TrEMBL record:
Organism: Meloidogyne graminicola
Taxonomy, superkingdom: Eukaryota
Protein's UniProt name: Glucuronosyltransferase
Length: 126
């Protein structure tokens, strides 16, 4: 009798799926494809996955990034006000020695602006 109960424990394994949000800014096609593959792998593993594609550089819908995960798009450039400054700083980095503080100083305004715009979108009920 106990043998059958133990056998059922091994046959019917408990699996719990999680709700997972994969944040995918449209910075580059390679980033979007990687994020889509991560979302698909998690979805095939039994999780409830939503891929949140936020328009940064590439237009939304320019790539079919996922087959299994749900997709939510958020339109509107998040960082347009500082893009030119960031690109100029990146061009300047090509011929300099780079340390972590330099990178932090270059990308911190970008991150702050993105955070500010995200907060604004959330307050406006996306």
């Amino acid at each position: 009798m106990y043998f059958i109960q133990i056998l059922f424990l091994f046959i019917f394994e408990n699996v719990f799926g999680y709700k997972i949000l994969v944040f995918s800014p449209t910075i580059s096609a390679s980033h979007m494809l990687l994020d889509g593959r991560v979302a698909d792998t998690l979805a095939k593993g039994g999780h409830d996955v939503t891929l949140l594609e936020v328009e940064f550089k590439l237009p939304l819908g320019s790539l079919n990034t996922t087959k299994y995960a749900k997709v939510k798009h958020i339109k509107g450039s998040f960082t347009s006000s500082i893009d030119d400054k960031i690109l100029q700083e990146i061009n300047n980095m090509l011929f300099q020695s780079i340390n972590p503080f330099f990178i932090l100083n270059v990308f911190l305004p970008y991150v702050k602006e993105a955070n500010r715009k995200c907060e604004s979108k959330i307050k406006n009920k996306i």
